């Protein structure tokens, strides 16, 4: 079973940059190579559902961060290697006559094709030497990461194959003769073509792992602990949003006894950012990446689904409220199909009147609260719903604090226990002087 994340959730969390934006969660990690960027996108598209695989990635990234192990892969060199491998007319046998003929023709009339072949071969030989040096420190010891050892084993097994072993002595040569060039070309582009493709994919994965380790060091990410308990668990300490400069950190806990969190707070108090921060951590850990928090303990979940920036649907003629209803239905169906999800709702049923929003929110949350194997985080302005829900013992109530100082709101962005009735919507309207703008925009009689 794969970890489920739909497009609405990806949009809510800014996993990739929207049109006109540059900041995204994926942009936090900066692989050097094009292949590395493609691998990173693939990993974000297919989060993991296996605790062992998650732990293996975390172990390897932590190893790279702690040891500072880094391979000097150059983007331009790898791009050239890819270009070389795509050349037509690859040799299907080694011929001394053809090797000398091609070399002589190149001397008499330099050929771009021959240059690409010789340059590509030299870069591939250099890459193999770099990988040999990189994995020289990986030994079969208890502290060596499993992924690194698998990569090293693959490299050793590939280079020990007869076709590769025959050209390994050429690694130390600064210049190859015509026959050696054809021998390498025959192995790289014909006999060992698939092995070379696999080796390059390994290089791109190493590029991603190194980039993630660098980001973890730079942004003070931590390495989550994966819990094997049957009950759902999510504990975040020092949680923050990685796209915010100088962020405020918060703590939040979900477990079998309290699997629903109801968050209240005034406009601009930080509710949406908090919800996004939690969801980002859940997604990153299921990719096998460190997270923006001081510490994290979590179960492996079956999916993540959020409703934060939901729009109406003009194509299907849905109003905002009906889009919300359809989204809640989708969540309910997903829970029924998969179970053990992390579900995030920001301002449930904001697209209708207060009475319908109250009745709908209360009924839906009461129904969700009966499902104990999922985790729910729900925010609202309608605090009356919170007071009605207090009779349910598995719901915890938190609020984002706001204080008025000399008539001006100040935000701590700190999560507090309890429920708040603070409302700032009308104050914000007044502060922006919208009424005055409207009144002063009335048509005036003009004298011609």
TrEMBL record:
Annotated TM spans: none
Annotated protein name in UniProt: DNA mismatch repair protein
GO molecular function: ATP binding; ATP-dependent DNA damage sensor activity; mismatched DNA binding
Gene3D superfamilies per the UniProt record, alphabetical: 1.10.1420.10, P-loop containing nucleotide triphosphate hydrolases
Pfam families named among the record's database cross-references: MutS_V
Domain of life: Bacteria
Alphabetical list of SMART domains matching this protein: MUTSac
DNA mismatch repair proteins mutS family domain location: 258-443
GO-annotated biological processes: mismatch repair
Keywords (A to Z) from UniProt: ATP-binding, DNA-binding, Nucleotide-binding
PANTHER family, per database record: DNA MISMATCH REPAIR PROTEIN MSH1, MITOCHONDRIAL, DNA MISMATCH REPAIR PROTEIN MUTS FAMILY MEMBER
Organism: Mucilaginibacter robiniae
UniProt cross-references to InterPro entries, sorted A to Z: DNA_mismatch_repair_MutS_C, DNA_mismatch_repair_MutS_sf, MutS, P-loop_NTPase
